[in-house]
Amino acid sequence: MNPHVPLDATHDPALRSWVASANDGATDFPIQNLPYARARRAGSDEAWRIVVAIGDLALDLAAAVQTTDHTDAQAAALAPLARGDLNAFMARGPADWQLVRASLSRALATGSPVEAALAPCLIAQSALEFALPCTVGDYTDFYTGIHHATTVGKLFRPDNPLLPNYQWVPIGYHGRASSIGVSGQTVRRPAGQTMPPGSTTPQFGPCKRLDYELELGLLVGTANALGEPVPIEQAESHLFGVVLLNDWSARDVQAWEYQPLGPFLAKNFATTVSPWVVTMAALAPFRVPFTRPEGDPQPLPYLDSAANRAAGAIDIALEVQLETSAMANAGEPPVTLSTSRWPDAAYWTAAQLVAHHTVGGCNLQAGDLLGTGTLSGPSPDQAGSLLELSMGGKAPVTLPNGEQRTFLADGDRVVLRGRCTASGAVGLGFGDCSGRVAG
């Protein structure tokens, strides 16, 4: 159980909604989930609204607020959501997050006295287009996937794959917030410098080794003041929710530029996130212990706590799918390239990332995005990137239709998915995080 968000009536596995599709066991969005997104009717010039997913529908909160009565506390908490400002709502903090979650759960549950009032405020998700759920002011991408780090390290540094600081420091770099887009975006193949094998002079041109990275993104809710670190015991109270994240990568550009200061053009051209923010509260039933492999050092005290050891990890099953142009033209569905689980892949927890990010005094703000890094599992078929699946391009991946890939081709569409299941809990998901390479 999450020590910061205890289980309550909103997690009750017996809870059902008057929205019939929310009671389908296969849905990503049962009433126990209630994630937030920013959307409007597709093709319209309407103002962007904050909506909440329930089954295959979405509740327009601006409309819902106008049709139902609220206490003063509820009205204050709902006000930023009604005006389409998720950042302002996230900044209000855990008490208001929980107040709204409980209110929405009661309103959408079977037997709700406001069913008739809210029914006209529901819109089919298929009729919506989405924007980024919030304004992302800053983006930090971490490197928590130890299996990814080890495999990639062997490709770039065969004699020294995992640097000695990895087991002590949550490694990260400052990403580019301006190029973050929402699921469904088209990604243009970037250009940059590369160093061909055997050459002494770099060349400039389109990336030839375009790749995806299977990640999760953590959205900061409440800020900390400049110069005031967040203790690990309080770290998760600053996190609002989780999205799927694809950190597109130009591997040939990366190989030439990343020393000595790390990624730059290889990473700043596009990052895609899923539109739905699954809250930390919704993920409470899926907490699992955080453990280190036997023989590895334990974290330094500022990165360690009893609560983090007991339930610092979240069991999210992850999947990468690929749809080529030929598959799309033939009406064939995307194929699964790999699957993994967050606890098996990550060497650091969400709380540890917040604690480390702020320990030097950095001030996180509402809407800041923390990427986990590529979440590859321990076995080769659980790799979260084509760089790993193809062993640096040496072992092409053969698809069911006979096509092969070492890296992404023009027209390829990558789809990330995530789902949580646990005994005694209703399973939930994140929706799709998709992006297509232009061409």
Question: What do you see in this structure?
Answer:
By secondary structure, the chain is α+β, with helices and mostly antiparallel strands. It folds into two domains: 9-131, SH3 type barrels, CATH 2.30.30.230; 139-313 and 342-396, Alpha-Beta Complex (Fumarylacetoacetate hydrolase, domain 2), CATH 3.90.850.10. It is 21% helix and 25% strand. The protein has helices at 61-67, 72-82, 86-91, 94-108, 115-118, 146-156, 232-235, 251-257, 306-311, 325-329, 342-345, 350-358, 386-389; strands at 36-41, 49-54, 57-60, 122-124, 128-131, 139-142, 172-174, 180-182, 185-187, 191-194, 203-206, 210-211, 214-220, 239-246, 249-250, 271-273, 278-279, 287-288, 313-314, 317-323, 335-341, 369-371, 397-398, 404-405, 413-420, 428-429, 433-437. The strands form seven sheets. Strands 6, 7, 8, 13, 14, 16, 17 and 22 form an eight-stranded mixed beta sheet that branches. Strands 9, 20, 21, 25, 26 and 27 form a six-stranded mixed beta sheet that branches. The chain has a five-stranded antiparallel beta sheet with strand order 4-3-2-1-5. A hairpin with an 8-residue loop joins β10 (191-194) and β11. α1 (61-67) packs antiparallel against α2. The longest helix is centred in the first third of the chain and has 15 residues, at 94-108. The N and C termini lie far apart (46 Å).
